[in-house]
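User: Hey, quick favor. My workstation is busy. Could you predict this chain's structure for me?
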Amino acid sequence: MKIYLEIPNNCPYCGTKLIIKKDNNSEFLFCPNEQCNSRLINRLDHYCGKKGLDIKGLSEATLEKLIDWGWIENLKDIYLLEDHRDEWIKKPGFGAKSVDKILAAITTSRNTTLDAYISAIGIPLVGRNTAKELAKHFKTYAEFRDAVKDDSYHFFKLNNFGIEIDHSIKHFDYAEADEIVKILTFDENNPQEEQQDSSLAGQTFVITGSLKTYKNRAALQKDIEAKGGKVGNSITSKTTYLINNDIDSVSSKNQKAKQLGVPIITEKEFISIFLR
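Assistant: No problem, here it is.
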């Protein structure tokens, strides 16, 4: 049975005409309206979620309500929610106890790590793992921003960074992030935990396709990083192995790996070689 989906021409939230963007050989519809609430909720949810500052209680549903009430129009407004406490605790589904927990979590989030903040602000292609790598090279947010502004500095020279990530970092709008950082403090500890086992140090893995032994990619990545290895998003000349259970796949990652001479191993082979 074939299912046909109608591709919308306009954003269902604000009505703006959608455009097509390309990202890592994929195409997706994108709303160019900076004021669109759908874009705002995605930014807020990412910033407050586990890939960002992990602010407990600010779920997507709660954030949508805060937007509807007119209390949040940008990321910085999160830190002004204390001003609405008296009205907030009277809202259905809330109360003094739940609201105060959220406000306490927001206060806690003001002290964070550089990698968490870089991941939270939503630079395309820069997830937590990439942000950790950046935090190893730049000790402060100011140092990172100086590198962004320096036309002679190239992020693709860092381990497992490609042209696409370099372009994304260089062309991101940091205006909002530069304002928020003024009210934050950063933990000076290295964002990478001390490694007990460094047997995979200096090796970079890329994971693609479905897994059979591990529950998900995050679990496999955790094992790699626990032994000092790194996990990248894309195949580069610095990639040590591509992990793919379908060795004969014609996926873009498999083709790129073969083109660059990067060995392709299965999940079972990875476990047999590196975990025993």
